[in-house]
Write a structure and sequence with these properties.
The chain has three helices and three strands. By secondary structure, the chain is mainly alpha-helical. About 5% of the residues are buried.
Length: about 120
């Protein structure tokens, strides 16, 4: 199976994707088909590849996953920010905190009411 894993990864190093069916075109035996399929499942489990099907009964395509870095919002204000912008940021933070507190209160009230019912 490690040979088939290397085979799939080599293809995806040279191409951006490959059709699922193309992986089995050169398979001469049932054992090769099963080994290739198991290699695909293992690579998906390890998040080394991604399988995508655009529509029901459509062709399945195999890709390398795209890594997207997330950018965290700044936790401090810059010195050249206007006082009005700082006030707006404070209001937004207070609103978010209030919403979070209200959501927690609602959740605890719902839990209390369901616990009281026999």
């Amino acid at each position: 199976m490690s040979d088939r894993i290397e085979y799939i990864l080599n293809i995806l190093n040279n191409q951006d994707h490959i059709k699922f069916s193309a992986l089995f075109e050169e398979s001469a035996s049932r054992a090769e088909i099963v080994t290739t399929f198991l290699a695909l499942l293992e690579l998906i489990r390890l998040k080394q590849i991604v399988a995508y099907q655009a529509e029901e009964f459509g062709e399945i395509e195999i890709y390398r996953p795209v890594i997207v870095e997330t950018i965290q919002p700044a936790t401090h204000t810059s010195d050249n920010q206007t006082p009005q912008n700082k006030d707006n940021e404070t209001n937004i933070n207070q609103t978010q905190a209030t919403s979070t507190t209200e959501a927690a209160d609602n959740a605890s009230q719902n839990q209390s009411s369901t616990e009281q019912k026999p």
